Amino acid sequence: MRAVILAGGEGTRLRPLTSNQPKPMMPLVNRPMLEHIVALLSKHGFDDIVVTVAYLGNQIRDYFGDGSDFGVTMRYATEDSPLGTAGSVRNAADELDDTFLVISGDVLTDIDLTAFVKAHRDAGATASIALKHVENPLEFGIVIARPDGSIERFLEKPTWGEVFSDTINTGIYVLEPSIFDYIPLGDVVDFSGDVFPKVLDDGGLIHGHVADGYWEDVGTTEAYLSAHADVLDGKVELDIAGFRLGDGIWLGEGAEIDPEAKLEAPLVIGDNCRIEAGATLRSYTVLGTDVVVRAEAFLERTVCHDHVFVGQDVRLRGSVIGRATDLRPHARCEEGVVIGDECFVGENAVVNPGVRIYPFKTV
């Protein structure tokens, strides 16, 4: 079977981290989110993949190429302007002449796609939707299904007064090519808001499959940090790069750690990092490639992207630091701080909780 990965989103809620990279290329334990999706598809036998790209799409093409390095074949369908989830897939219709799967390139999941496809075929449906139970359904499209699994109705991003189910649409679909009869070419069209209601009105069968496994929409900075924690806690089945030391410390190739540094699992230290004596890395810290952490620095629940310099006695808690950012001695970033790529935070500077700094700025 073929798969379509939707990778055209701008990820505006994750800015400034997505100011100069597409959301699917955001690193999650030092690999792009999209790479984890490709690995999941490959594991379940989807080796022919079409990727829909728009915002900064060349970065995706340059990284994945034809997919051969990742054990799959990848092609690209480009949107000149946003077409919605269904419009994006319609744009790739020439490649999709048999049953196919649609998945977002910017979620964290280990859902059993093989079982999902089987459930779709057993139901004989035009479309099947992977569903999950969640505690707070307000951010998602709610779905209500009959006892036999057929879907009765949809409600996009409801208020609490409208919540009639905790079962949400994950945005993972198995579709028959006949779905294109409901998607006009070149229009902005969404599956749950436009296409699926038309299929139901036409008497078509849409099947809801309550999926086993982990699923998280990594749409905000808070979700981005908690997704890292879930990976490190083993709540989601995901390949973490590096050599595993003891109980939950992953060490990249060429990393140098002074014996006097203090490490508290779980954490990830990327390739060619350097951790000096007296530095403390507390749990749920993830360092990308070529990160330098100087003496007496303290990091906790912090994600540093590639080439970050953490100066002497810097304090980072619950922060995300973009690529090639330079934090000078005694600087401090509090809970919820997000710093974009190539910023300079000067000596003794304090960045207060929740502050976001866009790329190329000096503090």
Mean pLDDT: 89
Residues in β-strands, percent? 25-35%
What composes the largest sheet?
8 strands, mixed
CATH third-level topology of the largest domain: Spore Coat Polysaccharide Biosynthesis Protein SpsA, Chain A
- How far apart the termini lie comes to 51 Å
Total strand count, please?
Answer: 33
CATH level-four homologous superfamily name of the largest domain: Spore Coat Polysaccharide Biosynthesis Protein SpsA, Chain A
What spatial order of strands do you see in the largest sheet? 14-15-18-21-24-27-30-33
Structural class: alpha/beta
Total domains: 2
- Molecular shape: elongated
Low-pLDDT residue spans: none
**Highest-level CATH class of the largest domain:** Alpha Beta
- In DSSP terms (H or I, runs of 4 or more residues), the helix count works out at 6
Topology:
Layout: E1 2-7, E2 27-28, E3 31-32, H1 33-43, E4 48-53, H2 57-64, E5 73-78, H3 84-90, E6 100-104, E7 107-109, H4 113-123, E8 127-133, E9 142-145, E10 151-155, E11 167-175, H5 191-201, E12 206-210, E13 215-217, H6 221-232, E14 243-245, E15 249-251, E16 256-257, E17 262-263, E18 267-269, E19 274-275, E20 280-281, E21 285-287, E22 292-293, E23 298-300, E24 303-304, E25 309-310, E26 315-317, E27 320-321, E28 326-327, E29 332-333, E30 338-339, E31 344-345, E32 350-351, E33 356-357
Parallel strand pairs: 1-4, 1-6, 4-5, 8-12, 15-18, 16-19, 17-20, 18-21, 19-22, 20-23, 21-24, 22-25, 23-26, 24-27, 25-28, 26-29, 27-30, 28-31, 29-32, 30-33
Antiparallel strand pairs: 2-3, 6-11, 7-13, 8-11, 9-10, 14-15
